[in-house]
Amino acid sequence: MIAGINLAKQSKQAAVSLAQKRFAHDLIVSPKTGRTIIKTGAGGRSSSNGHVVTVFGCTGFLGRYLVNRLARDGAHVIVPYRDEDDMRHLKVMGDLGKIVPMEIHLRNKESLEAAIRHSDTVYNLLGRDYETKNFSFADVHVEAAGVLAELSQKHDVERFIQVSAMNADIDSASRFLSTKAQGEELVRSIFPSATIVRPSFMYGQEDRFLARLAMSRGLSIRINGGNTKVRPVNVSDVAGAMNKMLEGSNTVGETFELVGDKEYTYRELLDFIKEITNLDIGDVNVPKPVASLIAKAMNLLPWQTLGADEIERMMIDDKLTGVKTFADLEMEPTSLELTGIQYLRRFRTNLYSDEPLKKGVVGKKKTFHTSYL
């Protein structure tokens, strides 16, 4: 009898020890809507941070990194998609039931509303590098952004985070950058507390920046003599910063320019790529009018290629305007020189193994140390 009582006490104590303790800091009350956000679990993908997040543009380059960060921290993530094949890789990024796919169309307002109505945060990563017969820059960067901001305001979404672009300017010669700036203004007029994110050219495993420079052998980007200055940023850093914005009160209504730790010219980037890959990168400079004509001709192909508007963007230097940066999020951007090998190794030629080890290559202004290669 006594043994049975002791066993019952031990079972009760074990059950109590397994029960989760709740604290005041586990409960967050939205100042805008009064909605409660309750955290459960010890943290991580099998826990819940209480947030329901919709990520438009989740099937793009930045989108997959952001969804991974959000789901890894325990958020329920709604992933709107147009093509089912494009979102399949996202389903395994979160625990069972944490990734919720929803089919949408940009011109079907009801489908967009269905993807937003249960969320407390909406990320808008929608964007196009080139125009098509179905969607222009204005359709995606301005009209769609305005509709998402309007629906988010209608359903009392707490946070709206809009991804723009570095150098966004209404008066820009680039239609891409001009419409991005128009989208910023429209979103802010509808959703004043929106956070605007302006990343520079992003690089990573599936990028269209370093990979394009390496694959083109430099011929398609020798625009402006290779002297255009850019500050490429690691896509993982941008995703990490945007994940921090989910709960960061100091990001509400702010604009962030997310750039890399150093400034490079295209010529210096090509020297860096050549050093790592041993590719034969030529020094042929293509005048802008000729490059634009070539780009327009290439756009007649059935697959996406370099657009004429991208040629225009390659003439514009990255310029910081004094808004917030990584430092305001207590982050430091990753160094391209230290991590570039991860993304460029696959472009190495067979001749690379025949070359003697080098300690460094001196460019016009920078030294790229290659002892880690």
TrEMBL record:
One Pfam assignment: Epimerase
Annotated GO MF terms:
protein-containing complex binding
Segments forming domain NAD-dependent epimerase/dehydratase: 53-254
Q: Name one GO cellular component term.
A: mitochondrion
User: Matching InterPro entries, A to Z?
Assistant: ComplexI_NDUFA9_subunit, Epimerase_deHydtase, NAD(P)-bd_dom_sf
Which CDD domains does the record associate with it? NDUFA9_like_SDR_a (cd05271)
Q: Please give the SUPFAM superfamilies that the UniProt record associates with this protein.
A: NAD(P)-binding Rossmann-fold domains
Q: Give the signal peptide range.
A: none
Question: What is the name of the protein in this document?
Answer: NAD-dependent epimerase/dehydratase domain-containing protein
